[in-house]
Amino acid sequence: MPFLLRAAVVGGVAHHMGTRSQAARDQSAAQQQQIDDLQDQQAQAPAPAAAAPAGAEDGMAKLTQLKSLLDQGVLTQAEFDMQKQKILMSM
User: Fold this and answer.
1) Per-residue tens of pLDDT for the chain, all 91 residues
2) CA–CA gap between residue 84 and residue 77 (Å, rounded)
3) I need a labelling partner for 79 at 20 to 30 A (CA). Which of 4, 11, 19, 38 fits?
4) What is the rounded CA–CA span in Å between residue 28 and residue 7?
5) Helices (H), 1-91
6) Which of 88, 60, 74 is nearest to 29 (CA)?
7) What is the pTM of this model?
8) What is the C-alpha separation between 14 and 38, in angstroms, rounded?
9) What's the CA gap between 89 and 45, in Å, rounded?
10) CB-based burial of residue 35 (10 Å sphere; 0-12 exposed, 13-18 middle, 19+ buried)?
11) CB 42 within 8 A of CB 63
12) Coil, strand or helix: which one is 52?
């Protein structure tokens, strides 16, 4: 009987770990998709003119969206900093 109990516990732990691993992979994939989407938006946006205030407004909108992703925990601080720098360089 102890063997069956041990097997059940081991099986339960393995199932739990597998479920957690899948959830982590799903979250990572979602984060990567959001980063890719943001990069696509940046690549498709026309280069702002040197003195175009509309470009600054667009950049601010992107920064706001980026900060929201950071606050939601979708982006790490390093990812946020990297994307923020790209946006600021394009303004």
Assistant:
1) 566 667 667 677 667 667 777 877 888 888 889 888 888 888 776 665 555 556 678 888 999 999 999 999 988 999 999 999 988 888 7
2) 10
3) 19
4) 31
5) 2-44, 53-71, 77-90
6) 74
7) 0.41
8) 36
9) 13
10) middle
11) no
12) coil
Range 24-33 contact pairs with CB under 8 angstroms and sequence separation of 24 or more: 30/74, 31/74, 31/75, 31/79
Residue whose token pair is 């925990």: 73
- What is the chain's length? 91
Report the distance separating Cα 60 and Cα 74, nearest Å: 19
Residue 42 to residue 61: CA distance in whole angstroms: 12
User: Are the CB atoms for 48 and 56 separated by under 8 Å?
Assistant: yes
Question: How many angstroms from the chain centroid is the CA of residue 52?
Answer: 30
